[in-house]
Amino acid sequence: MPNVSVSTVTAQVVSHLRERILLREWRNYLPGRDRLAMEMGVSHMTVGRALAQLEKEGLVATQGHGRRRRIVLPETGWKPRKLQIAILRFEADDTKLYFVVEFVHQLREAGHQVHFADQTQSNLKLDVKRIAKLVEKTEADAWIVIAGSNDILEWFASQPTPCFGLFGSISIHPIAGAGPSKKQAYVQAARRLVELGHRRIVVLTRLAAQTTFMEQFLEELKALKIPVNDYNRPVFSDSPEDLQRLLTSLFATTPPTAIVAGNLDMFQVVQQFLARRKLLIPEDVSLISGDPDPTFCWCRPTIAHFSWDSTPWVRRIVRWAENIALGKTDTRKAITQAEFIDGGTIGSVFHDETKQSTA
Fold first, then answer.
1. Least confidently predicted of 168-172, 183-187, 252-256, 271-275
2. Is the pTM of this model over 0.90?
3. Fewer CB within 10 Å: N-end or C-end of the chain?
4. How far apart are CA 92 and CA 249, in angstroms?
5. pLDDT one-digit tens code per residue, 111-163
6. Is the pLDDT of residue 208 over 70?
7. Residue 70: what are its φ and ψ, rounded to 5°?
8. Which among 124, 353, 128 is positioned nearest to 252, based on CA atoms?
9. In the listed set 46, 76, 106, which residue is the last one of a domain according to the structure?
């Protein structure tokens, strides 16, 4: 966890005092600065900066040197401020994700100004320095980061501007966040594939998205007596060209009988690749999507995938914005359990594998 900066301590004191004022803990006047500093265990300067902020918000008014500040909330009808919230996408298509559409709508309904940053993490090559420059030139009271890597989320966690992580390695950073836990879904998928006779199983996911959930999948394969090496989790750079090279290489000599695509766009790329080679799903290759999609219910055969309830994420984001608008520190997370949904895109191993290697 990064060291707490002076500005963060001040923000915490502001949040604490504001909450006590709103709860009507004091009737007409705040206690003196010395008493507040002693109660909260901070310096007089920190309390002074916090009181200055509360004066700007109209919650308290100075009465002159040496006199206690007057609480003016009852007369002003103080309301939480509205935020400018910037969203840092992993890639441009994140705008279309159904839960992103929903939380953007609800935040705007609550009066906040929400906009997507001009560039995505992919555009910026996942480079923290480039992302820092983007943040510096973007006007925002708070950030929502979609599928941030460990390094990116670590950087945001060290900044005074509040951040909400959606997906990514949110569990190890002191920021608010939401996302699925895919651990059990990966275990269920591994067991099902091995039960169907699969041995050459490949997990495809971006390097930045590789998590402990995927490690759990590989550990489960080991527990099921399946040899595991780099073949099962190939590494490729975040470029379409490199992914195509990887897929071509995989199917050149010992083609996989099953592929778990870590996310929806990876699933679609693999689908297209297999179609070009005239390989059938699941007769030639079984395929699982690591993400759900509303269109899956229309597909025949049905799509094997991981599914979860994103409703708590939307609620958590809206509540987080409310708390930030009130000046509160909010680092709570909403993690939902993903489950493996069996489907028609997986089947028993196709024993005549000549077609795979020559297609």
1. 168-172
2. no
3. N
4. 28
5. 999 999 999 998 998 899 999 999 999 999 999 999 998 899 999 999 989 99
6. no
7. -90, 135
8. 353
9. 76
Q: Is residue 249 part of a domain?
A: yes
CA distance 186 to 194: 12
Same domain, 71 and 199: no
Percent of the chain with pLDDT over 90: 53
Single residue among 25, 43, 76 that ends a domain in this structure = 76
Contact 36, 3 (CB under 8 A): no
Whether residues 191 and 231 share a domain: the answer is yes
Residue 149 structural domain: 84-180+309-336
Query: What percent of the chain has pLDDT above 70?
Result: 91
Rama region for 147: left / alpha / beta (φ>0; ψ in -120 to 50; rest): left
Sole residue written with tokens 């002003």 = 76
How many distinct structural domains can be found in the chain?
Answer: 3
User: 339-341 and 304-307: which strand pairing?
Assistant: antiparallel
Q: Is 283 exposed, middle or buried (0-12, 13-18, 19+ CB in 10 A)?
A: exposed
